[in-house]
Amino acid sequence: MKLTYYGHACFAVEAGGKNLLFDPFITPNELAKHVDINNIKADYILISHGHGDHVADCTAIAKNNDSTVIGAFEVAEWAGKQGITNTHPMNTGGKRAFDFGTVKCVNAIHSSVMPDGSYGANPMGFVITTNDKNFYYSGDTALTMDMQLIPRWAKLDFAVLCIGDNFTMGYEDAIEAARMVQCTKVIGVHYDTFGYIKIDRDKVKRAFTDAGIILYLPEIGESVDL
User: Fold this and answer.
1) Interatomic CA distance for residues 62 and 59, integer angstroms
2) Superfamily of domain 2-225 in the CATH hierarchy
3) In this predicted model, what pLDDT tens digit does every residue of 18-63 receive, in sequence order?
């Protein structure tokens, strides 16, 4: 399974012959200025919560690709008001089969509001199961004991976890999260974009290595096979 990192918490995964894009925040990100969103393919866009640094390019990319936007009910409602014609509303605890695999929405501890100030619903993470591989995207979250439930729903091949601290888990809590979800391959996201979430990459990598967990920190625009 190939994962392409687009900066901050935005990444794409090819699964079941479909292109899944998560939390598109690219054009406002100075670190991702070399990425042209017009070249991004997205059959589905999955939105973990409503903050601008997770939905900034949702409308443009969805309209470019006729994508289906998957998110909490209120997120899907907001997307519809932006002129996105294909949406699929979900909510925490819900599970749904799609043509690429299954999406289960899980708890995330954070805040959420849409760019227009409307209610952004409760934040979520996603457990994605496919015929190829299974993975967990934490979304923006604190470490939560709810993560211990995830191995009951899927045996994970990798996890995408926020590591930048301040607004979300830092790397220490992300290591604990990886242990809770019983996964030894982690892609770190939500770091370095702003001054508040700058990390010492070498220090963070050493901590994961010492914990027996493989940490991937791909460059923006880089793809990794998992």
Assistant:
1) 5
2) Ribonuclease Z/Hydroxyacylglutathione hydrolase-like (3.60.15.10)
3) 999 999 999 999 999 999 999 999 999 999 999 999 999 999 999 9
